[in-house]
């Protein structure tokens, strides 16, 4: 059965047509909202990977259209970004660009004054790369989008803000969870009823944004940047500790070359030093210590075994 006829049987497809949503995806955001109340009292939001625009329509209807006065409307800010152009939506500022590019990230960030109390309360990302069918590669590309979206969120989100992003359920989700919990109080993975059961997509819903003490926001693209170097450039010890956990490897480099380089560079002693630094750092929040402690101790154990095996073999 072709895709079109399958879609037409779908209750959300039909309902989307009837209610004027540009895509059935609108129901995913509405279901996430029903479950977590992510749109409650929100006036400022960023919609990443927004085309054709059904999530932006939901934001427009819930944040903008419900305002009773022009003054209230002027307080609403919705920024929507995609590689593709989109037809206009009331109350939505549109940017066309690649969210993994620094220039696009900067254009989004420029809409939010970092010193004022008018930062975004919500960042959503429904981005999906062209799926290749090779699960590891698709999952990796999806993670790239999440890392880019999260980097943008660290600049624009206000404390307590919410971050929602599409993921492909897979092995890297534990890593993602530990990473997200360093930036957010609560982490959930949710599959809305409108997401097809046959699809491996789900959504991370991260609530209660808190920039770790001493962390300096930075635009990160793990496929392009040497993230350790980037973290070092900030001069922040906290960035050096947190950034390596955002993503591991890249596509060239799920490559042996890159993994070998990292293994050479980051030994169990390095992890032990990072661990000691973290434990001693009184400014480092206790809950992050607990999260990172598990990751670091695992790494120390793995590296020590590898080290032992290498030496025994020789
Ligand atoms: C599933 S669609 C989003 C649907 C949208 N939430 C809606 O409700 O209409 C995924 C979108 O991600 C966009 N996308 C993928 N990679 C991107 C990137 N690097 N930068 C910006 N947009 C990207 C695609 O162009 C596509 O429009």
Automatic annotation (TrEMBL):
<feature type="domain" description="Ribosomal RNA methyltransferase FtsJ">
    <location>
        <begin position="21"/>
        <end position="209"/>
    </location>
</feature>
<dbReference type="InterPro" id="IPR028590">
    <property type="entry name" value="RNA_methyltr_E_TRM7"/>
</dbReference>
<keyword id="KW-0963">Cytoplasm</keyword>
<keyword id="KW-0819">tRNA processing</keyword>
<feature type="active site" description="Proton acceptor">
    <location>
        <position position="166"/>
    </location>
</feature>
<dbReference type="GO" id="GO:0106340">
    <property type="term" value="F:tRNA (guanosine(34)-2'-O)-methyltransferase activity"/>
</dbReference>
<comment type="function">
    <text>Methylates the 2'-O-ribose of nucleotides at positions 32 and 34 of the tRNA anticodon loop of substrate tRNAs.</text>
</comment>
<dbReference type="InterPro" id="IPR029063">
    <property type="entry name" value="SAM-dependent_MTases_sf"/>
</dbReference>
<dbReference type="InterPro" id="IPR015507">
    <property type="entry name" value="rRNA-MeTfrase_E"/>
</dbReference>
<dbReference type="InterPro" id="IPR050082">
    <property type="entry name" value="RNA_methyltr_RlmE"/>
</dbReference>
<dbReference type="GO" id="GO:0002181">
    <property type="term" value="P:cytoplasmic translation"/>
</dbReference>
<keyword id="KW-0949">S-adenosyl-L-methionine</keyword>
<keyword id="KW-0808">Transferase</keyword>
<feature type="binding site">
    <location>
        <position position="98"/>
    </location>
    <ligand>
        <name>S-adenosyl-L-methionine</name>
    </ligand>
</feature>
<feature type="binding site">
    <location>
        <position position="82"/>
    </location>
    <ligand>
        <name>S-adenosyl-L-methionine</name>
    </ligand>
</feature>
<feature type="binding site">
    <location>
        <position position="53"/>
    </location>
    <ligand>
        <name>S-adenosyl-L-methionine</name>
    </ligand>
</feature>
<feature type="binding site">
    <location>
        <position position="126"/>
    </location>
    <ligand>
        <name>S-adenosyl-L-methionine</name>
    </ligand>
</feature>
<dbReference type="GO" id="GO:0022008">
    <property type="term" value="P:neurogenesis"/>
</dbReference>
<feature type="binding site">
    <location>
        <position position="55"/>
    </location>
    <ligand>
        <name>S-adenosyl-L-methionine</name>
    </ligand>
</feature>
<dbReference type="Pfam" id="PF01728">
    <property type="entry name" value="FtsJ"/>
</dbReference>
<protein>
    <recommendedName>
        <fullName>Putative tRNA (cytidine(32)/guanosine(34)-2'-O)-methyltransferase</fullName>
        <ecNumber>2.1.1.205</ecNumber>
    </recommendedName>
</protein>
<comment type="similarity">
    <text>Belongs to the class I-like SAM-binding methyltransferase superfamily. RNA methyltransferase RlmE family. TRM7 subfamily.</text>
</comment>
<keyword id="KW-0489">Methyltransferase</keyword>
<dbReference type="GO" id="GO:0002128">
    <property type="term" value="P:tRNA nucleoside ribose methylation"/>
</dbReference>
<dbReference type="GO" id="GO:0005737">
    <property type="term" value="C:cytoplasm"/>
</dbReference>
<dbReference type="InterPro" id="IPR002877">
    <property type="entry name" value="RNA_MeTrfase_FtsJ_dom"/>
</dbReference>
């Amino acid at each position: 059965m072709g895709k079109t006829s399958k879609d037409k049987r779908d209750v959300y497809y039909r309902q989307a047509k009837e209610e004027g949503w540009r895509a059935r995806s609108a129901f995913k955001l509405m279901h996430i909202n029903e479950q977590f109340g992510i749109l409650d009292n929100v006036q400022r939001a960023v919609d990443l990977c927004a085309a054709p625009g059904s999530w932006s329509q939901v934001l427009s209807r819930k944040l903008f259209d419900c305002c009773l006065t022009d003054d209230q409307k002027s307080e609403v800010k919705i920024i929507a970004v995609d590689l593709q152009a989109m037809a206009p939506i009331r109350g939505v500022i549109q940017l066309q660009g690649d969210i993994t590019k620094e220039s696009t990230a900067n254009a989004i960030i420029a809409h939010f004054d970092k010193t004022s109390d008018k930062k975004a309360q919500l960042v959503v990302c429904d981005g999906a790369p062209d799926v290749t069918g090779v699960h590891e590669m698709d999952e990796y590309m999806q993670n790239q989008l999440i890392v880019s979206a999260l980097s943008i969120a660290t600049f624009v989100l206000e404390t307590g803000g919410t971050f929602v992003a599409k993921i492909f359920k897979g092995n890297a989700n534990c890593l993602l969870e530990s990473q997200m919990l360093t930036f957010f109080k609560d982490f959930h993975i949710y599959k809305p009823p409108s997401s097809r059961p046959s699809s491996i997509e789900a959504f991370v819903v991260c609530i209660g944004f808190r920039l770790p003490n001493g962390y300096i926001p930075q635009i990160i693209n793990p496929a392009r940047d040497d993230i350790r170097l980037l973290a070092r450039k900030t001069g922040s010890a906290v960035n050096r500790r947190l950034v390596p956990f955002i993503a591991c490897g890249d596509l060239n480099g799920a490559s042996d070359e890159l993994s070998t380089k990292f293994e050479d560079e980051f030994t169990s002693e390095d992890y032990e030093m990072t661990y000691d630094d973290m434990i001693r750092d009184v400014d480092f929040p206790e809950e992050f210590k607990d999260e990172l402690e598990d990751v670091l101790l695992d790494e120390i154990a793995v590296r020590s075994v590898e080290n032992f095996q290498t030496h025994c073999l020789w």
